[in-house]
Write a structure and sequence with these properties.
34% helix, ten-stranded mixed beta sheet, TIM Barrel, 311 residues, alpha/beta
Length: 311
C-alpha cells in the first residue's frame, strides 16, 4: 500500500523537515551548519556565489515527483500528479511560510559559541532560495509567481528540475536566477532503469527540455549525477545531449551512498573524485568546454564554455 500524505509528513518531520501547508517543506543542508559553525561553504558558494549560511533550501512539491531515481537519497513516497491550482498554496503564503520555517531552524545556532552573532543574523535573512530539496518543483502550478515574489524580496532563486516538465519551463513569465537540469543517463535505456520514470514519456520530455534551454534567458546548468557501474563514462553520448542544451555550465558530480539510496545501491557505486575529474576532462574535450573548478570533498567538477565571463 502506498504511503499516505500524513504518513510521509511524519517521516519528514522525524527527519528534521519543516512541513509548510500540505505540500511544501524546508530543511537545512549539511553545508549551512558547516558554514555557520566553521565558515566552510558548500561548493555552490565556490562555483556560483550562493552563500551557504544564507541559503533557504525548500521544495514546493514535497510529495510529487515524476521519477524514482535509484540514487535519490530522499524518501520516495511520491505521486507523479501535478498539484492543482485549487490545492496549491498561494505564492506569498508559501514564501512567508518558508522564510519563517528557515528562521526557526537556524534559531538553535544562536547559543553556539562557534557561530558569530553577525553570521547568525545574516542566516536569519536568507538571500538565496534553493528550490530543490525533494520532489519535482515544476509540479507546483505557481512556480513562476513564486520566483517573482522571491526576486521582489531581493532573493536569488535556484531551481533544480529533472526536466520532465518542459511545458512549465516554456511558459514561465519569471525564470529562476539559475536553472539546473539533471541529466543522469546518457541513453534512454539507462534512463529507464536508473531514473525509473513514473511517466511513460519521461525521456522524450527531457529531450524537449534540452532543446528548450538555449532559448531561456537565464543561467543554465546541466548536472550529471554519476553512479559507478550505471552511468559513469559514455562521454560522447552525454556530450551529444549537452550540446543540444548549450548550458552555461556542466556539473559532473559523484553519487554519494547516503539516505534511502542505500536500500538500492552500494558503496561500490560511489565514484572517486579522480573518476569524476577524469569524466569531466573527457566531457569538456568533447564539448569544447574547460574545467573551471572542482571540489574533491563533494566529488564535483565545474565545466564552462566561456559564458562564465558574463557573471
Amino acid at each position: 500500500m502506498a504511503a499516505q500524505p500524513g504518513d510521509i509528513r511524519r517521516i519528514f518531520e522525524k527527519q528534521g523537515y519543516e512541513v509548510i501547508g500540505d505540500h511544501a517543506a524546508v530543511k537545512h543542508c549539511h553545508w549551512l551548519r558547516k558554514s555557520l559553525l566553521f565558515n566552510t561553504p558548500c561548493y555552490k558558494q565556490t562555483f556560483y556565489g550562493i552563500e551557504s549560511h544564507r541559503c533557504l533550501q525548500m521544495t514546493p512539491a514535497a510529495y510529487q515527483c515524476t521519477q524514482k531515481c535509484l540514487f535519490c537519497w530522499r524518501y520516495q513516497g511520491f505521486t507523479d500528479t501535478a498539484l492543482s491550482p485549487a490545492e496549491a498554496m498561494d505564492p506569498d503564503e508559501l514564501l512567508e511560510g518558508c522564510v519563517a520555517a528557515h528562521q526557526r531552524l537556524v534559531s538553535g545556532f544562536k547559543g553556539d559559541q562557534r557561530c558569530s552573532p553577525e553570521r547568525w543574523e545574516e542566516a536569519r535573512d536568507p538571500k538565496h532560495v534553493a528550490c530543490s530539496l525533494t520532489g519535482e518543483p515544476t509540479l507546483y502550478p505557481f512556480l513562476s509567481d513564486f520566483f517573482e515574489r522571491c526576486h521582489r524580496r531581493g532573493m536569488t532563486t535556484f531551481l533544480v528540475t529533472n526536466g520532465t516538465m518542459p511545458r512549465v519551463l516554456a511558459t514561465m513569465d519569471v525564470l529562476p536566477t539559475q536553472l539546473y537540469v539533471s541529466v543522469c543517463a546518457p541513453t534512454k535505456e539507462i534512463y529507464r532503469r536508473l531514473c525509473c520514470p513514473l511517466v511513460p514519456d519521461g525521456w522524450e520530455r527531457l529531450m524537449e527540455t534540452l532543446q528548450l534551454l538555449p532559448s531561456l534567458g537565464t543561467r543554465t546548468v546541466i548536472r550529471h549525477t554519476l553512479v559507478d557501474g550505471w552511468n559513469l563514462g559514455h562521454e560522447r553520448e552525454y556530450a551529444a545531449l549537452d550540446s543540444r542544451a548549450e548550458p552555461w555550465f556542466v556539473e559532473p558530480k559523484g553519487y554519494v551512498h547516503v539516505g534511502y539510496s542505500r536500500q538500492r545501491l552500494t558503496m561500490d557505486h560511489m565514484p572517486s573524485h579522480a573518476d569524476v575529474r577524469r569524466f569531466g576532462e573527457h566531457l569538456a574535450n568533447h564539448l569544447g568546454y574547460r574545467v573551471l573548478a572542482e571540489r574533491p570533498r563533494s566529488r564535483v567538477v565545474l565545466l564552462g564554455g566561456g559564458r562564465e565571463r558574463m557573471l
